[in-house]
Structure formats: structure tokens, C-alpha cells
């Protein structure tokens, strides 16, 4: 049967072309070749001993202090050769490459005194776990430009179990440290390395822009507490690609500050691209957004995702008091195996910094599109809980096929949106088909819609 080209077809082609072009401009496309440093030193030149016992904090400090004089001469490289280099926290500088050899292992000290206390983040108002300051990360940098942490699959091992035990037995005095934190920095590259056993979240870019995390492996036991993989926080133009992450909590969690502190700091996360991510998580999600999202989160694009043996696939977490927004999220090509809840929205996640949050500060959640999802051995397809006077709107689901072991497969409250080709059949709140006039509501689904309209002529997806 010959199909005539209608004006609608032409319009749809144009719309999908425009959104394809706009959607494809992400930091993953814009990144530039790595800087080559004209100067290089080796950590042993500063007295470091790679026996796994000698504390090398001073050697790292002195080497980086020495390299400062090369910052305006093309930058410099600090080479860490094969060995086990025990250290407390150290601080990076601009125009620096930290290069680990294949068999190099940087080991975090197990003495908490080697992890100095620093101020709470202004967008959190206090440490995430405890009031007051927090332990500084093992590898730290602030106000930097052009910093590269890389290596031939060398390892940074936080030896976090001592911190997990202090968390479990209630003997922490301050919030646990991250393994790597970059604050207010741009042109950051973290690549070709393995990060293990972080005390807390593993890689934390906060108030950063132009961040590339590529080809890293992040490992921590599935029962280790809060060992998130990568947490872009109040950061924009971030590309995370070709990573394998297996940890106790969210593999990736996009954040932007906490309740009244995040609202007044008002530093959003935007233009976050995640692609070719594989992994498993004990208690977390493959990709989480929130729960700290008070500065707003928008333009999140994730595709080619493979999550297995995990609690959740995709999860949005928020609560009254957070304020802020999560909008324009597009997730596609997701494969889930042995996952308890494939998609979860938690509007009442709770957890507040103090009692001064404003219960009337409601988060705005809208334009969330999830398409091309397959799942085997899923308990629940979707547990989608919005908020009573603050529904999550323009939620669009398309081409989702899950083999589900529990009933009901979908359980929705206070959400609104549309769906096409979802099996098992989604909840009534999202049951309306996606039509051309929903193009502006269903973020970036126009490509898909075009193929749906094609099918409609053959009668296969006529509305019920
Ligand atoms: C952020 O870093 C830049 C340098 O990259 C600096 O000029 C600026 O003052 C820093 N902002 C804050 C709040 O420290
Ligand atoms: C990933 O890193 C490993 C070493 O860790 C390297 O051999 C491999 O070439 C890298 N792959 C890409 C695509 O960069
Ligand atoms: C890097 O090392 C980790 C941990 O030893 C390993 O699981 C991973 O496969 C290695 N990656 C590459 C690209 O060789
Ligand atoms: C708590 O755990 C830490 C780290 O393992 C240990 O040093 C400390 O003795 C423990 N304290 C108590 C009260 O169990
Ligand atoms: C917490 O403070 C107590 C008392 O000052 C100290 O003995 C303990 O070592 C501290 N714990 C940590 C994890 O730093
Ligand atoms: C990772 O390692 C590969 C192989 O050595 C190299 O080609 C690539 O440029 C590295 N990528 C980054 C971002 O460091
Ligand atoms: C996000 O990316 C788009 C397209 O590259 C760009 O126009 C916009 O300025 C970026 N937003 C931020 C906050 O950097
Ligand atoms: C299904 O997934 C659960 C975890 O959600 C796992 O315990 C169980 O073994 C899986 N069943 C099969 C047949 O793989
Ligand atoms: C539906 O998603 C699967 C991947 O899960 C993909 O292979 C297939 O092409 C998609 N179908 C349509 C109509 O887009
Ligand atoms: C749907 O989810 C809510 C909230 O978790 C729960 O209380 C309710 O029992 C669930 N409904 C069904 C039919 O399972």
C-alpha cells in the first residue's frame, strides 16, 4: 500500500530533525583532546615510598606545590609509578595531570586524622550525614581549571570499610569523605582508572562545568553504605561515558543542593549526558535524580544503559521542602535484568538538613521521557508516587517491555502523562496515547512518535 506524504508527516520530520540536532549537542560531543604536559615529575622524587605502609601525604603535597610554578608554562604531570602509595588527603592545582601507572595503587589512610575537616557546602548548609563540617575527600580540588586524573587502569582505593563501620556503629563525628571531589572547577577529566571502596560517594563534582568522566571502573561492596558512583552536583556540561560501576548505592546520582540551603544557593545541574553505563547496585538505582535537587536539574540525557541485580533501575527522589525542579529528562535504550523496581518516583523521600525547611516549597517535576526499555525478572515495573497538590506532569513512557513477577505491575499516584507500547499495560494515569499535540509535552519523543504515526495508519496503535 502506497503512503501519501501529508503535511503532518513533513512537520513531524522537521520537528524530529530539529530536536535531534538540539538533543545531540552534549558535552560528550564538545570535549577536546587531552592536554599534553611539557613537564613531568615522579612522586618518588619527593620521597614517596610505595610499600603500602609509609604515609606519603607530604610527598604528594610537596610534589604538587613544586608543580605550581609550571601552571603558566603549559601545566605539569605528576606520575605515580607501580606500587602501593598510602596517603592522607591531598589537593590538586590547575593545569595538572595526575597520571597513575598500570600497577599503581593510591591507598587512602585508615586514620581519620589524615582526612581534614572542611566547611559544609553552602548548598547543603551542613554535612550530608551530620551537622557541621565534613571530612575532605582523598583527592580534592577547588577553583581549578584544566585538571586531569587518569592512568592505565591504575587504582585509587579509599579503604572505606573503616568508615562504613564507623557509620554503622555510630562513631562518626563528621560526614564521611568522598574519594574524589572537585569544587567550582572546569575542564575536568577523570578517565582510564579504577576507583574502589570509597568511604562515601565516590566521585563528586560540585559547582563544576565541563566535566568528562570516561572509561572508569568504580567498585564497592553491594552492602557498603552510601557508596554512590558518580554524583554530578550543581554542575553543568557533564559527560559520563563507557563506565562500569558496582556499588552499594546509586551508580549515578544527579543533585543540586538540599532544601532551603539549595534553594537560596540556586545552582542548578544541567546538560548532563550519560551513555554506555553498565553496572549493579545493592540498595540504589542505576540512575537516580535527587533527592537533593533544590537548585534545579534539567536537560539530562542518558542512553545505552545496562543494569542488573539491582534494587532500582531509574529513580527520581524528592520531597516537599526541596523546592527546585527536575525537567527535561530523556532516558532511552535501557536493559534491566533481575531488578526489583524498574522505574520509581518518590515524592515523599524525606531527609531534611534541619527543621527550618519550608513545607510549601514544592518541587516541580515535569517532562520526563523514558523509552526503549527491556527488562527480565523485574518485580515491579513502576512505583510512581507524585505529590497530592503537586503532580508530576508530562511523564511519557514509550516502548517498554518488562517481564514482571508481582502484581500490580504499575502503581501510580499523583502523576500525569502519556504512553505508547508499554507492556504490561501501564496505570490509567499514564494510559493516554501520545498524539502529535503532545509533542511539546513529551520531551524529545518526537522521533519515536513519527514511527507511531506510521503504525497508526496500519491500525496497530489506535487508541482504545
Ligand atoms: C571559582 O573559581 C574561579 C576560578 O576558576 C574563581 O575565579 C572564583 O572566584 C571561584 N568562585 C568561588 C565562589 O570561589
Ligand atoms: C579504557 O582504559 C583502559 C585502561 O584502563 C585502556 O586500555 C582502554 O584503551 C581504554 N578504552 C578507551 C575507549 O579509552
Ligand atoms: C581495570 O581494573 C578493574 C579492577 O581490577 C577491572 O575490573 C577492569 O576490567 C579493568 N579495566 C580495563 C579496561 O582493563
Ligand atoms: C566502630 O568502628 C570502628 C571502625 O571499624 C572501630 O575502630 C571502633 O572501635 C568501633 N567502635 C565501636 C564502639 O564499636
Ligand atoms: C571522634 O571524636 C572522638 C573524641 O574526640 C575521637 O576519640 C574519635 O577518634 C573521633 N572519631 C573519628 C572517626 O574521628
Ligand atoms: C584512555 O586510554 C586510551 C588508551 O591508552 C587512550 O587512547 C585514551 O586517550 C585515554 N582517554 C582518556 C580520556 O584519558
Ligand atoms: C547546555 O547545552 C546547550 C547546547 O550545547 C547550550 O546552548 C547551553 O548553554 C548549555 N547550558 C549550560 C547551562 O551550560
Ligand atoms: C530474579 O531477581 C531476583 C533479584 O531481584 C533474584 O534474587 C532472583 O534470583 C532472580 N531470578 C532468576 C530466575 O534469575
Ligand atoms: C523498542 O525498544 C527496543 C529496545 O528495547 C528496540 O530494539 C526497538 O527498536 C524499539 N521499537 C521501536 C518501535 O522503537
Ligand atoms: C501502591 O503503592 C502504595 C505506596 O507505596 C502502597 O501503599 C499501596 O499499597 C500500593 N497499592 C497496591 C495496589 O499495591
TrEMBL record:
Pfam family, one: Glyco_hydro_28
Species of the source: Papaver somniferum (Opium poppy)
Entry protein name: Pectate lyase superfamily protein domain-containing protein
GO-annotated molecular function: polygalacturonase activity
One GO term of the biological process aspect: carbohydrate metabolic process
Lineage: Eukaryota, Viridiplantae, Streptophyta, Embryophyta, Tracheophyta
Coiled-coil region: none
Keyword Chaperone among UniProt keywords: no
Signal peptide extent: 1-23
Keyword Signal in annotation: yes
Gene3D superfamilies per UniProt: Single-stranded right-handed beta-helix, Pectin lyase-like
Keywords assigned by UniProt, alphabetized: Glycosidase, Hydrolase, Signal
InterPro entries attached to this UniProt entry: GH28_Enzymes, Glyco_hydro_28, PbH1, Pectin_lyas_fold, Pectin_lyase_fold/virulence
Family: Belongs to the glycosyl hydrolase 28 family.
Amino acid at each position: 500500500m502506497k503512503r501519501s506524504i501529508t503535511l503532518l508527516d513533513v512537520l513531524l520530520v522537521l520537528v524530529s530533525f530539529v530536536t535531534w540536532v538540539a538533543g545531540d549537542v552534549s558535552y560528550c560531543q564538545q570535549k577536546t583532546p587531552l592536554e599534553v604536559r611539557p613537564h613531568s615529575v615522579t612522586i618518588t622524587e619527593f620521597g614517596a615510598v610505595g610499600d603500602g605502609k609509609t604515609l606519603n601525604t607530604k610527598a604528594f603535597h610537596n610534589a604538587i606545590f613544586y608543580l605550581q610554578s609550571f601552571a603558566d608554562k603549559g601545566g605539569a604531570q605528576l606520575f605515580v609509578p607501580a606500587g602501593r602509595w598510602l596517603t592522607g588527603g591531598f589537593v590538586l592545582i590547575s593545569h595538572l595531570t595526575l597520571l597513575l601507572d598500570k600497577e599503581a595503587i593510591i591507598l587512602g589512610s585508615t586514620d581519620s586524622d589524615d582526612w581534614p575537616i572542611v566547611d559544609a557546602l553552602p548548598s547543603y548548609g551542613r554535612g550530608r550525614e551530620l551537622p557541621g563540617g565534613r571530612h575532605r575527600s582523598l583527592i580534592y580540588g577547588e577553583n581549578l581549571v584544566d585538571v586531569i586524573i587518569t592512568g592505565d587502569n591504575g587504582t585509587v582505593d579509599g579503604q572505606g570499610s573503616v568508615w562504613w563501620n564507623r557509620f554503622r556503629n555510630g562513631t562518626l563525628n563528621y560526614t564521611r569523605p568522598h574519594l574524589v571531589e572537585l569544587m567550582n572547577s572546569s575542564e575536568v577529566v577523570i578517565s582510564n582508572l579504577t576507583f574502589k571502596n570509597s568511604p562515601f560517594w565516590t566521585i563528586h563534582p560540585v559547582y563544576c562545568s565541563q566535566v568528562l568522566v570516561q572509561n572508569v571502573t568504580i567498585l564497592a561492596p553491594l552492602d557498603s553504605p552510601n557508596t554512590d558512583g558518580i554524583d554530578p552536583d550543581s554542575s553543568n556540561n557533564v559527560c559520563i561515558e563507557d563506565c562500569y560501576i558496582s556499588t552499594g548505592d546509586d551508580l549515578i546520582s544527579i543533585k543540586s543542593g538540599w532544601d532551603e540551603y539549595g534553594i537560596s544557593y540556586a545552582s542548578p545541574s544541567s546538560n548532563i549526558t550519560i551513555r554506555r553505563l553498565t553496572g549493579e547496585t545493592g540498595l540504589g538505582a542505576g540512575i537516580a535524580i535527587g533527592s537533593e535537587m533544590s537548585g534545579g536539574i534539567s536537560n539530562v540525557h542518558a542512553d545505552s544503559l545496562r543494569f542488573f541485580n539491582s534494587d532500582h533501575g531509574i529513580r527520581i527522589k524528592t520531597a516537599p521542602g526541596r523546592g527546585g525542579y527536575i525537567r527535561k529528562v530523556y532516558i532511552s535504550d535501557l536493559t534491566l535484568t533481575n531488578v526489583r523496581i524498574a522505574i520509581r518516583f518518590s515524592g515523599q523521600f524525606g531527609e531534611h538538613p534541619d527543621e527550618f525547611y519550608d513545607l510549601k516549597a514544592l518541587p516541580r517535576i515535569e517532562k520526563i521521557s523514558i523509552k526503549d526499555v527491556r527488562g527480565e525478572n523485574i518485580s515491579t515495573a513502576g512505583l510512581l508516587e507524585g505529590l497530592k497538590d503537586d503532580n508530576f506532569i508530562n511523564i511519557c513512557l514509550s516502548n517498554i517491555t518488562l517481564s514482571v513477577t508481582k502484581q500490580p505491575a504499575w502503581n501510580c499516584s499523583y502523576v500525569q502523562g502519556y504512553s505508547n507500547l508499554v507492556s504490561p499495560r501501564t496505570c490509567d494515569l499514564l494510559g493516554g496515547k501520545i498524539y502529535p499535540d503532545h509533542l511539546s509535552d513529551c520531551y524529545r519523543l518526537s522521533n519515536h512518535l513519527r514511527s507511531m504515526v506510521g503504525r497508526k495508519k496500519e491500525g496497530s496503535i489506535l487508541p482504545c
